[in-house]
């Protein structure tokens, strides 16, 4: 078979095989060093990503448009006024009166639901 086209996929050169084996013992320490380097690079990459995300969050907070200040409506309680009457006069049209009264109680920190003449109440804005 002088003119055969067959070529083996296995290395037939014994000298090359021995040379590769010698490099293999040297290559193990290089492999460990490369793994350590890759681990450090991975940790550095994760740190950069975390710092980037945190920085973007901080910038987003500072770049957010300011919330317009809502003027608080204050009301001086007149003699004979009750929370129910005040709520009916000042609540939004479709809101339940009891919900608006609860808002008045919370915004003013009232412990009991009674009000006295001359008392100044803040009215919630909905």
Explain how this protein is built.
This protein starts with 13 loop residues before the first helix and ends with a strand. It is mostly helical. It is rod-shaped and about 120 Å long. It has helices at 14-63, 83-90, 97-108; strands at residues 73-76, 120-123. The mean pLDDT is 81. Helix content is 56%, strand content 6%. It has 2 domains: 11-64; 73-123, LysM domain (Membrane-bound Lytic Murein Transglycosylase D, Chain A). A two-stranded antiparallel sheet has the order 1-2. Helix 2 (83-90) crosses helix 3 (97-108). 8% of the residues are buried. The chain crosses the membrane at residues 40-64.
Q: Strand tally, please?
A: 2
**Biggest pleated-sheet summary:** 2 strands, antiparallel
**What percent of the residues sit in helical stretches (DSSP H or I)?**
55-70%
Instruction: Tell me the series of helices and strands, N- to C-terminal.
Output: HEHHE
What is the overall number of helices? Answer: 3
> Span from first to last CA?
97 Å
Mean pLDDT: 81
Q: How many domains make up the 3D coordinates?
A: 2
What share of residues are in beta strands?
A: 5-15%
The spatial strand order of the largest sheet comes to 1-2
| Overall SS class | mainly alpha
Radius of gyration: 40 Å
Q: Describe the global form.
A: rod-shaped
The residue ranges in which pLDDT falls below 50 over 5 or more consecutive positions are none
């Amino acid at each position: 078979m002088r003119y055969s086209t067959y070529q083996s996929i296995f290395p037939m050169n014994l000298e090359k095989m021995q040379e590769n084996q010698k490099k293999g013992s040297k290559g193990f320490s290089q492999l460990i060093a490369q793994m350590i380097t890759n681990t450090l690079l991975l940790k550095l990459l994760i740190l950069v990503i975390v710092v980037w995300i945190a920085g973007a969050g901080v910038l987003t907070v500072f770049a957010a448009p300011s919330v317009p200040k809502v003027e608080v409506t204050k009301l001086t309680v007149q003699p004979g006024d009750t929370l129910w009457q005040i709520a009916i006069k000042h609540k939004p049209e479709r809101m339940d009166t009891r919900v608006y009264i609860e808002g008045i109680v919370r915004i003013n920190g009232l412990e009991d639901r009674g009000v006295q003449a001359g008392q100044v109440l803040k009215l919630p804005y909905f």
